[in-house]
Amino acid sequence: MSLLHAEYLKLSRRRIYPLMVVILAIFIGLAAFFLLALGQIAPEIAEDVPVLDRPEAYVVGAQQVASQTWFALILAVVVLGGELATTAWATALTRDARRVAHIAARAIVFVVASWLAMLVATAGWAVFVTIVSPGEGSPGLEGWLDIFWRLGLIQLAWVTLGMGVIASLRSIGPALGAAIGFSFIESLFALWGPYEAISLTAASTGLFQVGDQGFFDAFVPGGDLSTAHAVAIVLGWSVFGLLLTWWGLQRRDA
Amino acid sequence: MTQNAIEVHGLIKDYRRKRAVDGLDFEIPTGVLAGFLGPNGAGKTTTFRALLGLTRITEGRIEILGHPVPAEIQAVTKKLGAIVEEPGLIKALSGAVNMHVAADTLGFGHERIDELIDFVGLTEDANRKISEYSKGMRQRLALAAAMLGEPELLILDEPLDGLDPAGQRAFRSRLRALVEEGRTVVVSSHDLADIEALADYIVVIDHGRLVTQGPLESLLQGGATTVAVDDAVASIEALANAGIEASHVEGGLLVAENDGSRIIRILAGAGIYPRAVTPARSTLEAVFLGMTGEDER
Hints:
The complex is a heterodimer of chains A (254) and B (297). Chain A is mainly alpha-helical and 254 residues long. Chain A has one domain. Chain A has helices at 2-12, 16-41, 56-66, 69-84, 88-91, 99-132, 140-169, 172-189, 193-196, 200-206, 227-250. Chain A is globular. By secondary structure, chain B is α/β, with parallel strands linked by helices. A six-stranded mixed β-sheet of chain B has the order 6-7-8-3-9-10, with helices on both faces. A four-stranded antiparallel β-sheet of chain B has the order 2-1-4-5. A four-stranded antiparallel β-sheet of chain B has the order 12-13-11-14, covered by helices on one side. In chain B, 34% of the residues lie in helices and 27% in strands. Chain B contains eleven helices and 14 strands.
């Protein structure tokens, strides 16, 4: 518990987390405007954008939020990297002492923080849907709980990958480049059939089966993945991220 | 308590293309304030990192408080406080929150935090962010964090570096107080005058090897004698005839021989009777420069 408290203190007293939440809100707000409002305000401009009805529009929002992989990656890279790049890590004598416990504490706090941000963004989208989208109904309690655990699972994978990258590279700049680059390339590869079956991007979107999205279908991989398959992919990448973190920290010689 | 707080035997640390530590052997007894000296690049920080299990050693054996390191590092982690290179503080957090983070991270309680902040004189600044602290304040807070577990052994890399004279004096008095409580403190520093004023025990390394080690006083008093005589010129000649170098200094001669009775015999044989013969006290700087050859580099 004390390790969790230490990680909580470190994250909660920094400006980076609220700043990232604001940026996430801006991104999701823009996406909501273009996907939900533009078609109604200026249909001639948004002629290829399908009109999203309720309750499907809620799930599309969760999918949009889940696709913001940069949030978990940057959070993990910058916060953990801020320690690895200085001697805080060394001075606290934590490289050898309880290393696995430290990795677990960091992963838990980063995942929860990232997950909460995703819930806030999803809630914001839902308010937008309620105001502007046509149709009736909502996912219901069970549907929302389904969305919540899927968002959490996706954050686990991207957070652990971010930790793995910074633990391996130890320098924030290169690690950010590598993490964001990986996220971008992975999302491109996800459109390629053979890779789609193990793609984290495909699994992240595949966890939210939203059916036909018209124009966007070609750019949304993972639609054919079963939930079990998508969960297996996400867990597999999470294990890989944790192992990469452990391996990176194991190579202690700076 | 073990007899030696630190024992190092045959320590070798290779980086990719460079040997940073080359068969280093030394011991530091329990309950002393030890100065760990060496020129830049001598291997001091690498040795400290090896002692703390922060870098993997290539060869050799290290024992800290009787436990082999890194094999049993977890057994000594809670008995050991350290500042390696820059103080490891999180600039975005206040001094007090940094202490809470350190305590939580290391698995210690919060009971001593206020006492330790007071010990290092930062009570009034505890709620300011580290980014607003001076270097001296950061060093003092790092010392407080290093002491969270009431460590038996403190390993401090250049803790006086960058402190103003008043800060250095305050820091030295705090380190001395810790030794008087029975702890062992190991301090590396470039400033030989600091170490001379502070340490009881000295380890000097160069090129990754031991140059000398021992109690400070024995190092400073070895090798020369001060002799008070009336006829300095005749005395220098008499000693030179016996193969002993001597030079004229204020108040007499500085003779490159530590056996006072031999000096008296030689001078008496020449009809010279010294008024006083005392062991000459060198300075740590002179000893260090002579042993490491830094004055010739």
